[in-house]
Amino acid sequence: MSMYLNYFGLHTTPFSIAPDPQFLYLSERHQEALAHLSYGLRGSGGFILLTGEVGTGKTTVSRALLEQLPEQTKTAFILNPMLNQQELLATLCDEFGIRYAKRNITDKKLTDKLSEFLLKAHAEGEQCVVLIDEAQHLQPQVLEQLRLLTNLETNQDKLLRVILIGQPELQDLLRRRELRQLAQRITARYHLLPLQAADTERYINYRLQVAGAQRGLFDSKAIACVHQYSEGIPRRLNLLCDRALLAAYNDQQQVVSARHIRLASKELDGPTPAGQNAAWRRYTGIAALLAVTAVVGWQLPQWLATSDSSTSSVSQPLSHQIEQPTSTDPLLALTRSWQLPKPPLDQPLCQWVEDYQLGCLEGRLRFDQLQRINYPVLLRLADGSMQLVSNPAATPDANWNGEYVLFWQLPPGYLNADESIYQQWLARGLARFGADSSASLALQLRTIQVQAGLPITEQLDGPTLAWLSAQLLTTGPRIQSRVEE
User: Fold this and answer.
1) Which tens digit of pLDDT belongs to each residue from 241-275?
2) Same domain, residue pair 6 and 34
């Protein structure tokens, strides 16, 4: 390994999967997650939720969050959630350093000890936080016990805050009827999606720089390839990059190429199964780069956000009748473009995407106006089939009846966060595109809508917000085209 480091001019391994603080890289999504959770700790609720697929960086965000906590914060970590109610209470006492008699232990005795500790900590100006990792494994009755603990409060503050970190199944668990009271107490939630392509490049270069690299060690094709094979998952990205550096060293090459990434992927995953060629792999990984049309057995729900009815709603709500979608459905291509999982069958689509900090816009607009918004868009054709437009050369099918649905990146502070953050974002956005801050909001919006070629409503409607989002935020897929003025 010392020869490997010397060969590339490194003083330490750049792509270890160990959570080393010096390699902490917060992408825009990680920073947004951190902002949501930080707000939750300042709010009045008892629970904060962070979910994400394996390897997306949940631990990274939680560590960064804990480093920001004031010194007068007492923290308890539960890394093994396979506990019953009494074991949970005992573990909390152990983590907070609360002494208790081990004999004749009961839930009530432990609860009384915790209550006494929390009241004393509050009187001394201290905040108590519990962080539970892999929380999707918690039993419902244990979660209910946590909820009861968060009942301890003063007139202004909760005495205990609980941060739940887990995989997407945790969200399903919290939708259970017996946990509805707990779900109502979640004041901040964030689902951490994989890295976008631009963040993958920054992530690689940042870790190389920290490790001592004086030059780029991955060419552009290698970076694109590693993003494709890692699907933006930081943990897998680390493994691929580490193996690729070893492959380049064995070849005595100064720069990692796409071939080295493919070799690393084969080493990690084994050979590609027969019949699954590279083109199919590219489709299943980034299917939304294609513009496809297919008949699907369901219709989209009406957009639930407040907007002008003439531009962003339909005359009759489209019912939510979903059959199990196939791998070629445009809906799945749309969700994959945002790196989302397969949508559920029992929840309205536009309600579902809010769990991922995305807005959902549905209604009728001209195609040139949809292009200006510049997010992948799903068109509904007259025969009930769907066409996904995510390719700059694509045009709407002749049978398009004007209906569409698209996802857009919600701005900072829009959901479960500080309203002032959102207001500041909006003010900067309006000013950037020439709106006169001394004019009324209606006139400022008219200026923006005229410039963008959007319906002129003089209201902060869905199309206007989605357009601003596409202009001001870097996350999310794009059609990569603009309509000329």
Assistant:
1) 999 999 999 999 999 999 999 999 998 886 554 44
2) no
pLDDT score, position 378? 92
Longest dimension (CA), the chain: 79
Q: Which of 154, 156, 83, 96 is nearest to 128 (CA)?
A: 96
Q: What angle do CA 265, 284, 217 make, to 5 degrees?
A: 35
Q: Does 16 lie in the same domain as 42?
A: no
Which pLDDT tens digit goes with each residue over 382-400?
A: 888 889 988 777 788 888 9
Which residues span the domain enclosing 89?
Answer: 28-192
Same domain, 175 and 310: no
Into how many domains does the chain fold? 3
Q: Three-state SS across the chain?
A: CHHHHHHHCCCCCCCCCCCCHHHCCCCHHHHHHHHHHHHHHHCCCCEEEEEECCCCCHHHHHHHHHHHCCCCEEEEEECCCCCCHHHHHHHHHHHCCCCCCCCCCCHHHHHHHHHHHHHHHHHCCCEEEEEECCHHHCCHHHHHHHHHHCCCECCCCECEEEEEEECCHHHHHHCCHHHHHHHCCEEEEEEECCCCHHHHHHHHHHHHHHCCCCCCCECHHHHHHHHHHHCCCHHHHHHHHHHHHHHHHHCCCCCECHHHHHHHHHHHHCCCCCCCCHHHHHHHHCHHHCCCEECCCCCCCCCCCCCCHHHHCCCCCCCCCCCCCCCCCHHHHHHHHCCCCCCCCCCCHHHHHHHHCEEEEEEECCHHHHHHHCCCEEEEECCCCEEEECCCCCCCCCCEEEEEEEEEECCCCCCCCCHHHHHHHHHHHHHHCCCCCCCCHHHHHHHHHHHHCCCCCCCCCHHHHHHHHHHHCCCCCCCCCCCCC
| Residues 97 and 76 reside in one and the same domain | yes
